[in-house]
């Protein structure tokens, strides 16, 4: 046992609902992400109704944290106690309890206590934990009150969309996991910012286009279980939704796989008439949400299925097509090596896209692509060197409408006056090429830099 100083917090709230209703919300940890804003995902690892072991992901001071807790549930005493088996820094240990006190048959006092220690007793860690506990607990208690008092069961609902995939679950999973490529792959996604500081824990912010041309911005935390499922919670939702959680489920069999998109939504009742008009009601809100989320889910599922199927067993392109692509790349890279920005940009379509995994926004259109090359040349003007762009290990697969999909290794060699040559970067380049007369143009290029 460590010698860190223990710290305690106590938070209370009164709820206009029977104690049994409140207890059920506290006890059902799997539903916390729908009701409690900080909770992202809860896995019940084991349990028998009186004791259970949970793996919990939640936000704390804007960061995603996860830990394992044991809980003891006592319905007769209207009490749930917990202690963290495995905490995450800066928390050294954490325990606490929910105490419910019936004030009347329809009113309950909720008392939520925490006892914690901080790593190394660091005052900064103590302040961080106290702030996180205070912020999260206040949000949880307010959400608990709202959920218990707004008891209309129609406000929370779950629905699925499913797609059969003639391909591997691994490839379908990778399409969903790599959300940073959705602007290239999904027509309803116009902007994506994806961060993954901890492997398997993603923050996804994106703009999606609605059927009427509007743009909705959402921000989600996603937890990835490789090859099996991806769970998420939106931490920035449209006005009509008080909460939105979801899950992508991948089930492989002998003939391919089935991918399911599951949504659970809690409607914000106070927003219904503001969004739907004075005649709006819960049924109308459910229908609107089901249609909007389902439309985007089904589109994503179809594209994931097409992607997985295309990677299954592609037919080889004719030899003359492969050679023509090799010739195209030789000519295109020579233009870049000769610092001819505008002619190089003209090897892209008018609306061509150049995307990278370096965090920069994709370049769209020839002017933007040429401008980026010119800026890079200006930046390097004071450090003269000859750069050579080398494409190798080329694969070419047929696409739709005469297009081809290519993948190759890309290296850039840099040689200063007098040498020696050094490897400046190594990457994988994936293109969609479209025929244009007797040559090719790049409609979309994605460069995945090694080490990023």
Automatic annotation (TrEMBL):
Protein name: SRPBCC family protein
Matching InterPro entries: COQ10_START, NTF2-like_dom_sf, Polyketide_cyclase/dehydratase, SnoaL-like, START-like_dom_sf
Every Coenzyme Q-binding protein COQ10 START domain range: 15-117
Origin species: Streptomyces viridiviolaceus
SUPFAM superfamilies for the chain: Bet v1-like, NTF2-like
Gene3D superfamilies membership: 3.10.450.50, 3.30.530.20
UniProt-listed Pfam families: Polyketide_cyc, Polyketide_cyc2, SnoaL_4
Residue ranges of every copy of the SnoaL-like domain listed in the record: 320-446
């Amino acid at each position: 046992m460590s010698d860190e100083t223990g710290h305690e917090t106590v938070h209370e709230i009164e709820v206009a609902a029977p104690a049994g209703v409140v207890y059920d919300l506290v006890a059902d940890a799997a539903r916390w992400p729908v009701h409690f804003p900080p909770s992202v995902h809860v896995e019940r690892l084991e349990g028998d109704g009186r004791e259970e072991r949970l793996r919990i992901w939640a936000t704390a001071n804007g960061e995603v944290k996860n830990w394992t807790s044991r809980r003891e549930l006592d319905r007769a005493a209207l009490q749930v106690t917990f202690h963290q088996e495995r905490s995450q820094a800066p928390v050294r240990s954490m325990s606490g309890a929910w105490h419910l006190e019936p004030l009347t048959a329809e009113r309950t006092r909720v008392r939520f206590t925490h006892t914690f220690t901080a790593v190394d007793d660091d005052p900064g860690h103590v302040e961080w934990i106290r702030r996180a506990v205070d912020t999260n607990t206040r949000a949880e208690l307010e959400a608990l009150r709202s959920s218990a008092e707004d008891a209309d069961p129609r406000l929370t609902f779950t629905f699925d969309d499913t797609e059969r995939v003639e391909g591997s679950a691994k490839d379908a999973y990778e399409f969903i996991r790599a959300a940073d490529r959705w602007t290239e792959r999904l027509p309803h996604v116009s902007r994506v910012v994806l961060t993954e500081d901890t492997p398997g824990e993603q923050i996804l912010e994106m703009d999606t286009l609605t059927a009427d041309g509007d743009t909705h911005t959402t921000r989600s935390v996603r937890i990835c279980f490789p090859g099996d499922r991806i769970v998420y919670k939106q931490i920035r939702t449209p006005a009509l939704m008080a909460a939105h959680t979801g899950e992508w489920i991948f089930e492989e069999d002998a003939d391919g796989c089935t991918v399911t998109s599951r949504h659970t939504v809690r409607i914000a009742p106070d927003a219904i008439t503001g969004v739907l008009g004075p005649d709006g009601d819960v049924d109308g809100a459910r229908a609107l949400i089901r249609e909007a989320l389902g439309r985007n889910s089904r589109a994503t599922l179809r594209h994931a299925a097409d992607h997985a199927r295309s990677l299954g067993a592609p037919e080889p392109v004719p030899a003359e097509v492969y050679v023509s692509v090799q010739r195209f790349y030789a000519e295109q890279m020579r233009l870049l090596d000769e610092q001819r920005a505008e002619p190089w940009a003209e090897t892209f379509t008018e609306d061509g896209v150049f995307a990278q995994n370096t965090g920069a926004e994709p370049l769209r259109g020839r002017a933007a692509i040429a401008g980026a090359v010119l800026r890079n040349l200006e930046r390097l003007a004071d450090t003269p060197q000859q750069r050579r762009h080398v494409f190798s290990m080329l694969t070419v697969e047929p696409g739709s409408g005469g297009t081809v999909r290519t993948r190759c290794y890309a290296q850039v060699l840099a040689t200063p006056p007098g040498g020696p040559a050094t490897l400046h970067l190594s990457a994988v380049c994936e293109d969609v090429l479209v025929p244009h007369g007797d040559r090719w143009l790049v409609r979309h290029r994605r460069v995945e830099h090694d080490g990023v």
